[in-house]
Amino acid sequence: MTTAMNSQDGMNKQNGGAVASEDLVDLKCVFERPKSLSDKPFHYCPGCSHGTYHRLIAEMIDEFGFMDNTVGICPVGCAVFAYEYFETDMIEASHGRAPAVATGVKRALPDRFVFTYQGDGDLASIGMGEIIHAAARGERITVFFVNNGIFGMTGGQMAPTSLIGQRTTTSVQGRDPRTTGHPIKVCELLSSLEGVAYLARVALTSPKNINTCRKYMRKAIRAQTEDVGLGLVEVLSPCPVQWGMSPGDALHHIEEDVVKEFPPGEFVDKLAGPVKA
Amino acid sequence: MDLCQIHADRCKGCELCVQFCPKHALEMSEERNAAGYHPAVLAHPELCNGCAMCAQMCPETGIEIYRRQKRARQDAVNQG
Amino acid sequence: MPAKMQLTKGNEALAMGAIAGGCDCFFGYPITPQNEVPEVLSYELPKRGRVFVQAESEVASINMVYGAAAAGKRAMTSSSSPGVSLMMEGLSYIACAELPCLIVNVMRGGPGLGSITPSQGDYFQACKGGGHGDYHSIVLAPWNVQEMYEFPALAFELADRYRCPAMLLADGVLGAMMEPAEISDDAPPPNVPEKPWATNGRNGRAHKNVVNSLVIDPYGLRDHNLKLQAKYKAMECETRWDTRDVDDAEILVVAYGISARLALSGCKLARKQGIKAGLLRPITLFPFPSKQIAECATNKKRILVVELSAGQMVEDVRLAVNGKVPVDFYGEMGGVIPSPAEVCEKIVEAAR
Q: 117-176 in A: which are within 8 Å (CB) of C?
């Protein structure tokens, strides 16, 4: 954040986030970069929700006080550089294997907070075996799953989560269910597994939904910390560039079309009682 | 000082902050930032009440929000 | 309880050797002919408060090893040829990320699903990389049950020293055979070096640790590769080999693992027929004892390489002697195991 400031405001975080000028003492910062998020600017495209989800994860790590206790596992895909954006220990996994890597870490170090960050190609395509079995074993890990219905990093190819009729670079006529099947609904699929303690889906399309996402994330983290089972939060995320839409239109598309295929809500909640403060 | 501080060099011009600002206080700048984007600017600081909708929606975590100390429940935004 | 001599199966010795070597975490998937390894570890590890996980696949196994090794633990997996093939992507990541760990391959006949009978057809895969990119694992080849017990500890030690994967390359005979070996049920814990690079939570550390095999900048990746290559060069001091009756030998037999057992018996039979044959057994297949073979071969008439393959290590032996000594090859495939008499016959042929 040191280089990206407006020059006149004097609020450089290097000064501890304090308000420097004397006439500003009556102001308090109520929304700032979480401490668990590094200063490095995201490489994501304009309007992409990866950055938003990163920020929410960092907020959670701060809120739970886990910065010193966390090992995060990054995917292959757009979020392949996620290890650069968190201030926690991070591991870069091979494509789809983050739940297996997380299993290795969590079994080795059961008192650490272990999360994976995975896209829909990573989790629902190549890594389907790993997430299903991690869920079936009830691994005490938290999965932050980003579903944007497309392979973003590689140039906009069809994903298992692409909508019927969705045009991608490998389904230029639109996804045809006769030859490419139907979208895979991860939350619905995993909800039959006993090892899952918490499952929820939310669209990152508004401040209200972002707040809902926070609530879900807290529960998915508690599923791990309270030793209940695997927790997963799926966010419906826009990919404006590969969808060929403006960022605003992409959010409307999620709210009008994507949620019909992927209904938001909580699918599994085995947590007892309210959030512990 | 403005309640809404936009870090222009982090901005990628996605315009979500402008679209979600309930007070229409934000606009896209005619200028370009170092990365070549037209960044969002607080064009009408007098309209801004520090509600943080823009900051919530900003994918770059490029907006900081300040509130006056005398306000009650000043942490409401972050506590969700 | 001190180590005592007991009649032990190779796979079981290997499992107990892994425990003695300080294995914290085992992740594996069943495959013949190595199933006694996970079976023994599934009750011996938890009993000691260590980790055993039966993974859903070899792909998951190797990635669990990646995670536990990144967390700073001594982690291992065990499999056989087709399963090890599935691990090659993960192994490449582990090598690039410079994580120490142990991979056991109790080789069976290939290619394809092949057979469950013994083979040495995975030499190239084990020693030349196996996965994508320029990397190596340290490869140890035991030839008896005692070494099946001792080599896991050595493999962990070398892996930690060089921050690289180590592979124990055995075969279906060594896994299934029983012979007396000195085994300890409660060996003292080994000295494990500090791992300040481990991603085990910052816990007050001033900086975060990242375990990664992605180096997007070409010059950065070039430099990382140069670093790896320098490490492989530095490993040459770890080369291990064994010789039997080579000083006066006219025929030098080179073989590893179970083939070396057969070859030694073949050499003895040949000596009874008046042909002076001796054995050089590479113990480390990577680093390969090229210099030692070249030195040993200087006064030899011919070299005979014996393998349970179509001829894989023989290429390294030919490179080692660089045309100065003729190199013959005798190999069997598909689980066929030559008798010492058959090896002797080939020695006799070479001596003519």
A: 129-130, 132-133, 137
Token digits of residue C104: 């056991």
Which residues from chain A sit within 8 angstroms of residue C202, using beta carbons? 67-70, 88-89
Does ipTM exceed 0.90? yes
Q: Domain residues for C271?
A: 240-351
Contacts of B5 (CB under 8 A, 6+ apart): A6, A9, A11, B63, B64, B65, B66
pLDDT level of residue A25 (50, 70, 90 thresholds): low
Tell me the pLDDT of chain C averaged across its residues. 97
The domain tally of chain C equals 2
Q: How far is A248 from chain B (nearest CA, A)?
A: 6
Touching pair C, B by Cβ (3+ pairs < 8 Å): no
pLDDT digits (tens, 9 = 90+) for C288-344: 999 999 999 999 999 999 999 999 999 999 999 999 999 999 999 999 999 999 999
Domain check: are C195 and C68 in the same one?
yes
Q: Residue C198: what pLDDT?
A: 98
Residue A8: its H or E element:
none
Is the per-residue pLDDT at A106 higher than 80? yes
Q: Which residues on chain B are in Cβ contact (under 8 Å) with A204? A: none
Selection from B75, B39, B43 nearest residue B58 by Cα:
B39
Across the interface, whether the CB atoms of B55 and A23 are under 8 A apart is answered no
Interface of C with A in 5-34 (CB under 8 A): 24-25, 27
Q: What mean pLDDT, rounded, does chain A reach?
A: 91
Mean predicted confidence (pLDDT) in C41-48: 97
Contact list in C for residue A89 (CB cut-off 8 A) is 199-202, 208-210
**Chain A CB within 8 Å of residue B26 CB:** no
Tokens 């691994």 sit on residue: A139
Q: Which CATH number among 2.60.40.10, 3.40.50.2300, 3.30.70.20, 3.40.50.720 corresponds to the domain B4-68? A: 3.30.70.20
Got the DSSP string for C131-144? SSSS---EEE---S
